[in-house]
Amino acid sequence: MIFWVVFAAGLFLAFLFRHLHFLQDARYVWAILKTRDRVMKCMQTNYSLLDRFLDLVTAQPLKPLVLFKDEAFTYRDADELSNKAARVLLQSGVIKQGDTVALFLRNEPMFLWLWLGLSKIGCSAAFLNYNIRSKSLLHCFKCSGATTLVAAEELQEAVEEVLPSLLDEQVTVFILADRCKTADVESFKDKMSQASSEPLSKDLRSHSSPSVYIYTSGTTGFPKAALITPAKLLTISCIYGQAGMKSDDVVYASLPLYHTSGFMAFAAAIDRGTTMALSSKFSTSQFWDDCRKHNVTVIQYIGETMRYLCSTPKKLNDRRHKVRLAIGNGIRADVWRDFISRFGNVKIMEFYGATEGNWGVLNYSGKIGAVGRHTFIYKRFFPYAVIKFDVDEGLPVRDSSGLCIEAAKGETGLLVCEIAAKSPFLGYVSDLQQTEKKRLHDVLKKGDLYFNSGDLLRIDEDHFIYFQDRVGDTFRWKGENVATNEVVDVITLADCMKEANVYGVEVPGQEGRAGMAAVILNEGQRFDSAGVFKHVESFLPSYARPRFIRIQSSMDVTGTFKLLKGKLVEEGFNPNQMTDPLYFLDEKDKNYVPLTVDMFNSITSGKIKI
Hints:
Blueprint: H1 2-44, H2 49-59, E1 64-68, E2 71-74, H3 75-91, E3 100-104, H4 109-120, E4 124-127, H5 134-143, E5 148-152, H6 156-168, E6 172-176, E7 186-187, H7 189-194, E8 212-216, E9 224-228, H8 230-237, H9 239-243, E10 250-253, H10 260-272, E11 275-278, H11 287-293, E12 298-302, H12 303-310, E13 325-329, H13 333-343, E14 347-353, E15 360-362, E16 372-373, H14 376-381, E17 384-387, E18 389-390, E19 395-396, E20 412-418, H15 432-437, E21 439-441, E22 449-459, E23 464-470, E24 474-477, E25 480-483, H16 484-491, E26 497-505, E27 514-521, H17 529-539, E28 548-551, H18 566-571, E29 582-586, E30 591-594, H19 597-605
Parallel strand pairs: 1-11, 3-4, 3-5, 4-8, 5-6, 6-7, 10-11, 10-12, 12-13, 13-14, 27-28
Antiparallel strand pairs: 1-2, 8-9, 14-15, 16-23, 17-20, 18-19, 20-22, 21-22, 22-23, 24-25, 26-27, 28-29, 29-30
Helix pairs in contact: 1-8, 3-4, 5-6, 8-10, 12-13
EC number: 6.2.1.3
Enzyme class: ligase
Domain AMP-dependent synthetase/ligase: 59-362
């Protein structure tokens, strides 16, 4: 009798578990379909995120939109300040409807006023990473087709470094200062203080212009400008609402606004009609104090930020805050558990998506470590697949008929997403070659077309989806995507270098992968450690500089002459596993120093921070 009771109870619990997931799955798909329908209706009536903002200015003019340090800017303030910024650009005589303006700023309210102002006059904004310099800065500026650059005063030195090239292209350069002594560079703030704050004519707008260009490393070469249309921006703005953010929340944004993840918080604040507390940068020491100061209820994150917060010394007031919801991506399962255990019952909503991608998923079930759930309902409306992938060759595995093979449950494979009218892949600006590389033909049937995410995912037996790794020539470090080919292009320009193979290696206790370069030296040359350090410091942002260098006599390649990385990645930077000379980037000594066994142990134990 007891056996049958237990058996029946087990069946009931199993049914309840599956039924609960079915309800969650159906509810999520319904929410996504409603969002898609809403965006389509908005596009039919030319209703953009800017229109949503202007409606809120009318409905709640005195509600704070942005909190920054000790200042509060209402919706009306944001409207008037963006009107002023737009007029400065219009009155300069160099901006017309449909033009692109590049923004080179750190996190500050002016970034937001400029974007709103550009939207009001029918112009697109290109968000430049404020860490890039020299060749990368010029590349990112040029590929957007921008004719004007607006830069922060503290970034003026970086601008002056490339100013001759910009002037050769007849680019107008503004510096966000009251005055500027540099020839051929105009000041901006003094002009803005004198400009009118009256509303601008709606006739100035262009609904065919992209809303913004956001840069992504992709898989090869320099950063690429992903095109974000008004429709896509509206879709992105809805993610926080789908995750549970409400109109009375205060969302804390500490990630760079030039990132999709950072700007998404502002877009979501407009979508929900709520308030955003903006931080000039992410700071572990200021994070919770800012949350308490601004009564923050929702935080955004990437995996690295959550790990940094968990690694700080414990405090008595760790749970004294109002944060109820965390929205982001890239959090490890162990960090997820540590965060909740330490900082209280904060609901973590992990999602997966790519800036240029045409598909995303949200972990609405709260399964620790997962990015979402694989269901036939979701796949029916938003077709995708996880296919077998040859990591060494960097290609999908195909059968005798030339079609891709779906990965089995529990097997890691490449995520691909169908490209269709309702799920377009917009590609990269001025880079048709890289755009085409992201298109995968003849995937599940002849003639179909899918977006190659470049990400390896795994679906377990319970249908939960887990992010595993990135493939090809990109890895993630310090919250940034690093394009290995860009690092190769830079490091091989050092005098002693002949060839380089760049990849990411795991470091215990660290998110993502640290950069490592296996190199071959020019014949008869020795490794110029100090010279190479100076070279990478001059031409690469901090996160892209190889932390480790391995000197080799030859490179292993595949049958198609592609550099092999699998074995190198597996061996990592462990001097016990190789006889090749190893070097470690020492920022204090400004040099690459020999990596000893003792130093390796200190790095892996966390005594040496990288």
